[in-house]
From TrEMBL:
UniProt name for this protein: tRNA-dihydrouridine synthase
Matches recorded under InterPro entries: Aldolase_TIM, DUS-like_FMN-bd, DUS_fam, DusB-like, tRNA-dHydroUridine_Synthase_C, tRNA_hU_synthase_CS
Keyword entries, A-Z: Flavoprotein, FMN, NADP, Nucleotide-binding, Oxidoreductase, RNA-binding, tRNA processing, tRNA-binding
Binding site for FMN: Q78, K147, H177, G232, R233
Amino acid sequence: MPVPHLATPLSIGPVTIRNRVVLAPMSGVTDLPFREIAWRWGAGLVVTEMIASRELAMSRGESWARLKRAGLGPHMVQLAGREPHWMAEAARIAADNGADIIDINMGCPAKKVTGGLSGSALMRDPVLALSLIEATVKAVDVPVTLKMRLGWDGNSINAPQIARQAEEAGVRLVTIHGRTRMQFYEGRADWNAIRAVREAISVPLIANGDVQSPADAREILAASGADAVMMGRGAQGRPWHVGAIADHPPPSREQQREIVAEHYEAMLAFYGREAGLRHARKHLGWYIDRLAPSLPVEDKAAIFRSTDPEDVMQKMMQALQVQAEPTAREAA
């Protein structure tokens, strides 16, 4: 099977995405400010943070903030839950509020999620998982997709079977992270193991796990037989890199500094000053790790301690004057 060119479009049912490199949904990371940057710099598709279906249906917590689209398109909303009723209700709400694609989360390994029998815990109960999928598909007219892992652990690799049943239930695309839940993010993702899912389904397949460079993207496609790739942690500290994998021209070093400043301001506007300062710290840390890895520890700490946005950004811009050349792996 020939490896698809990442810069070419991909159809998910009636919806077409502009290229085959997708920004993974990451709770606490891929909020609206982050997604807007990734989209503007060429990502083929960006996905909301995971939204708890019952929370959305009952208008609780930050679910509505996570649902926001702000002109990005197609708008892919990821939902999580363990009850078919609430998944269906949340899917209807999402579709009514502009979602072009609904993604079902069956891959999150976090104990907070799996402890509630959601996320990857659903892979331990394929009957319940299928009932959630069927309820979601029946609730909306937009395409429904599924993201999951290889299985719960090494003794229960059941992604091919669940993917086949999901396709029969109407799912239009499947994404596989090449680890089990019990691996969390340890070790290396098994790209070859994803191929068993490719052989089980005819709908498009996205391969996910440890994609950091164009070379990684080519290799995961060849190993898995997937139609597209998804980048998660590889985008932290460089939201423009998703598009760069699909041959979109990356920003210059000066533009990267401008993106950092823009991202910081957008987070303060989105969350408010106090919450924005907290949310932004991890992103600033990732930017420093990517763009100024030699910054002294005390200078990094001073950025995190400051509660004055102007002071934070002044220190940050000074820090980013220390330029780091891309690693060989990033440039491959």
